[in-house]
Amino acid sequence: MPIKITIPEQEFFNEENNEFITVKETNLTLEHSLVSISKWESKWHIPYLGKNEKTPEQAIDYLRCMTITQNVNPEIYNYIPMDEVLRIKEYIEDPMTATTITKQEGKGRSRKVLTSELIYFYMFSYNIPVEMEKWHLNRLLMLIDVFNEENKPKKKMSKQQVMSRNATLNAARRAQLNSLG
């Protein structure tokens, strides 16, 4: 699900040229998706996801990569108001799903550097249709996590857990039999 932002008409004074610059109101539609990350990584040759800090130039360029709107003046990204920047940040951080997965202590996502190619690999490995590359990235990553979780071998129960489960089942059966007779 994309986000729509508005950059209002603004006027600035350019001291270098000693002239006023008028920025026309611009509406942009942005999409935080695997497609956006793939475009960005192909330009910068570093993983978008992860611990690396992005320069201001890289951060602005990611907004360009997210843009679905056609024929946008590249300079417009320098004039996005702070309230819209905050909305974009919230949009990028939004999980876009109700699904949660409880991670076992000490076990989180793999320590592999997550790049667009690795995400595509997971998609194709799990037969996730390529059309989902346009899903909000967090939703797509959660779907991949669900596949990972559901495909894990089931943990065996300890003897104590088996005995406890059987005692509970037997008590329920006895209660059901007693209610019948």
Q: Return residue spans where pLDDT drops below 50 for at least 5 consecutive residues.
A: none
For the record, the count of structural domains works out to: 1
Distance from N terminus to C terminus (CA atoms, Å) equals 58 Å
Largest sheet: 2 strands, antiparallel
Task: State the share of residues found in helices, binned by percent.
Answer: 40-55%
Please state the overall shape, judged from the principal axes of the Cα atoms. Answer: elongated
How many strands in all? 4
Secondary-structure element string: EEEEHHHHHH
Whole-angstrom Rg: 25 Å
User: How many helical elements?
Assistant: 6
Query: Would you tell me the overall average pLDDT?
Result: 90
Secondary structural class: alpha+beta
Proportion of residues in β-strands: 5-15%
